[in-house]
Amino acid sequence: MKINRNFDNLVPSYLFAEIASRTAAYVKAHPDNRLIRMGIGDVTLPLPPIAVEALRRGADELGVKETFKGYPEYEGYDFVREAVAGYYRSFGVTVAADEVFISDGAKSDTGNIGDIFGADNTVLVTDPVYPVYVDANIMAGRKIVYAPCLKENDFLAMPDKSLSPDMIYLCSPNNPTGAAYSAEQLRAWVDYANEHDAVILYDAAYEAFITDGSPRSIFAIEGARTCAIEFCSLSKTAGFTGTRCGYTVIPKELVRDGHSLRDLWYRRQATKFNGVSYPVQCAAAAVFSEEGLRQVHENLAYYQENARVISAALDEMGIYYTGGKNSPYIWLECPNGLGSWEFFDLLLNEAQVVGTPGEGFGAQGEGYLRLTSFNSRENTVEAVQRIKKLLSSSV
Amino acid sequence: MKINRNFDNLVPSYLFAEIASRTAAYVKAHPDNRLIRMGIGDVTLPLPPIAVEALRRGADELGVKETFKGYPEYEGYDFVREAVAGYYRSFGVTVAADEVFISDGAKSDTGNIGDIFGADNTVLVTDPVYPVYVDANIMAGRKIVYAPCLKENDFLAMPDKSLSPDMIYLCSPNNPTGAAYSAEQLRAWVDYANEHDAVILYDAAYEAFITDGSPRSIFAIEGARTCAIEFCSLSKTAGFTGTRCGYTVIPKELVRDGHSLRDLWYRRQATKFNGVSYPVQCAAAAVFSEEGLRQVHENLAYYQENARVISAALDEMGIYYTGGKNSPYIWLECPNGLGSWEFFDLLLNEAQVVGTPGEGFGAQGEGYLRLTSFNSRENTVEAVQRIKKLLSSSV
């Protein structure tokens, strides 16, 4: 009996444990000081009423013999797949309902998608990076190469002719940097993938935050249907982090090694997945209705205004950052050449504001800190005032 | 770019497609004859009211800021893990709450568990077999060996010293045969696994149907905590096939290759899973309450009585079968030496009853047919009468 020894190559992440530990120590020493947690990577506003109503309706149907639902289709109910295809149409992108696979979330899918690819592929990820792409592929024994995101490229890495990746993870708008690719930049990636027989694994989990006309889907780019898989989620779009629903789109034209990747994924899901809870699928479909999208946009606007408040303050202070405009995340350069953890400590101790040290997302994150727009308006405004006061006195 | 070429080794299953096709052809030719579908592998009674109520309460909590829930713990909420541990206690088995991992179903977990094991392990499955164990391991490139289930061993394969499996899938009560291992038989497997450094992957999805005192968990067997992982589900226990919730138990003592398998699975789930929908977890916990179990047992009793009706008729006709007593499944020998598909056609054409040909579950299933107890009482009684009439006239 051998375990999967690739697990030995995983680097344990102490990021959130270390944040919790330093924060707890501060609170213990200063029980009367009110902390504002601006590192939150999770939504805080309640579900839109239309989603709650649909969850309840789905539950009621399960309680009555005539409307009871047993095993769902592995790929999702048609009414949800159609709703997702309609959502894409609403921003001008065409995907067929039968190219949409409903799942319990983009995280599961970005990890599990590896099942359909060989273990000897090379995987490109950006640095800094959402750790799931790295860890899932280390578990599978794949070689990882890193595309550095730097101030010089506005934290948007572009194709590097010296690397030959087979699988390319892109996340736009990015977690953790909030930076969003333009259509021109995405076209460069699509062309590169098509030329090199690579597959782009495109995480669009934050697409609903885009406001400046940047592409909301890789499939807005010509040529993407022969080289890309897209993952998306209702987690940030509609506050579904605790409700759990996402979707993955694989075009029929996407063929590698003589195999349709859509068919391989169907076989993978049919074998190792059994579909999404019926009431959750009802809620997902409700979100994509006209009234659903109206309710969703109210919540998004609240977070977007928080992001604007933070961005405006950084602009005022002349601090470099990415995100904030197309994203709930703001990725800022630590002032005065401070390291990620030094600035984290300064904010914690002197302003009682908790951020997330950028170094926790990769080597290129050193010297940066992530703030998020998921706290309340009042706390966001106060956190920004505290930071401004601290930096005007210490600079 | 290489796809996972292990997919080429998967054998496409035409079982249910072929059943659907033959059934549709019959219906087309005889539109006035009423079919009774006794091959159904899915529950048909509605969710217990307490589960519906809990789903609704969970949905309501998500709709209010003060009770909103974001990302769940990967391993499940403590209140559900405690409820599962309490359920085990109710039939005399001790597992700790922090050994319980809540998931979206046993199928996902029995497939995904492979992630923590090396690809060079040999996997033992019984024949006939639930196809997920086979296909998930073929996808991972593992060698599969088969332990034949035969009339001679009452369809309960026992350890074979000539094989050296590293991973052993057991399902008891079995899908598709309904046969349940005794404590003595399970002890032989546990001893074998401990002696050979193997791990038993024990699928207990049908444990709630056990009525004769057979073990409801592998952990009822001494020594199992050092060699077994158990998968279970609310699908058949509480009608959750469409609601989606299961759990996997990995004891802290289970160590292989110097690694705690519980810790490896935690790391796997933390990377490639994001927890179960909050309302679904509320429903799961409700099922394990005293009132929940009372309601669940009402539904189980209904299916159990259907199984008794079928078993009694087979006893009367002198037909050999397994299951029916500790299981919703009845696995019967086709009369008069008929093959699985021959008997299927005979039942379809002459009695308008649809079963599932045993051959679809593996070579040793040839000559057998599976009936299930998930239809209504009325239909079950009528199907049995039709079969009796047919066989008394044709024999």
Q: What can you see in these coordinates?
A:
The structure is a homodimer of 395-residue chains. With 395 residues, chain A is α/β, with parallel strands linked by helices. The first copy, chain A, folds into two domains: 133 residues, Aspartate Aminotransferase, domain 1; 240 residues, Aspartate Aminotransferase, domain 2 (3-Layer(aba) Sandwich). Helices cover 40% and strands 15% of the residues of chain A. In chain A, the strands form four sheets. Chain A has a seven-stranded mixed beta sheet with strand order 2-8-7-6-5-3-4, sandwiched between helices. Chain A has a four-stranded antiparallel beta sheet with strand order 11-12-15-14. In chain A, a hairpin with a 5-residue loop joins strand 11 and strand 12. In chain A, helix 4 packs parallel to helix 5 and helix 10 runs parallel beside helix 12. Chain A starts with 14 loop residues before the first helix and ends with a helix. The model of chain A has no long low-confidence stretch (mean pLDDT 97). The interface between A and B is large, with 77 and 76 residues.
Essential attributes:
homodimer, alpha/beta, Aspartate Aminotransferase, domain 1, Aspartate Aminotransferase, domain 2, 2 domains, 7-stranded mixed sheet, 15 strands, 40% helix
